[in-house]
User: Which sequence fits this backbone?
């Protein structure tokens, strides 16, 4: 039986992602009002704040710009004090809330060197498409081929 970090588990997650997307951002697609309601009284943690900002942007709420700016300040503060925010989350922020595909791609590529979950693949693929840099997906494709993993969005 595959261990939690094995390729078998990843294949299983990737295969079921269409029915049960594991990423909070992916879960929020189409259910952004539910996300905002769920997170209204949630702790003020960076990851939860990002989900709130993403849902607000998707819905076009009046506080969406403020939430995006707040998230940017959180990342700036983390960098100023010498800590590294979660690369995947910061890449999502840059891509979705700031529209900076090039910098988001750079972070997604760095993240993929160590993280290979569904969400990591998703942000790398979206950032590479948005930055119009398909060559950035070559390491992902090589890994998927070697690991015999079917990538989300692959033909077969």
Assistant:
């Amino acid at each position: 039986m595959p261990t939690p970090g094995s390729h078998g588990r990843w294949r299983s997650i990737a295969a079921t992602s269409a029915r049960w997307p594991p990423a909070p951002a992916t879960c929020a697609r189409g259910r952004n009002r539910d996300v905002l309601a769920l997170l209204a009284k949630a702790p003020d943690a960076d990851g939860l704040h990002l989900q709130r900002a993403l849902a607000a942007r998707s819905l076009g709420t009046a506080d969406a710009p403020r939430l995006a700016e707040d998230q940017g300040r959180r990342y700036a503060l983390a960098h100023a004090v010498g800590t590294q925010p979660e690369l995947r989350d910061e890449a999502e922020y840059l891509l979705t809330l700031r529209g900076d595909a090039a910098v988001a791609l750079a972070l997604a590529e760095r993240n993929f060197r160590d993280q290979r979950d569904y969400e990591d693949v998703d942000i790398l693929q979206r950032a590479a498409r948005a930055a119009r840099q398909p060559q950035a997906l070559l390491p992902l494709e090589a890994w998927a081929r070697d690991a015999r993993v079917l990538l989300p969005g692959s033909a077969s």
Summary: Residues 25-85 form one domain. DSSP finds nine helices and no strands in the chain. The radius of gyration is 16 Å.
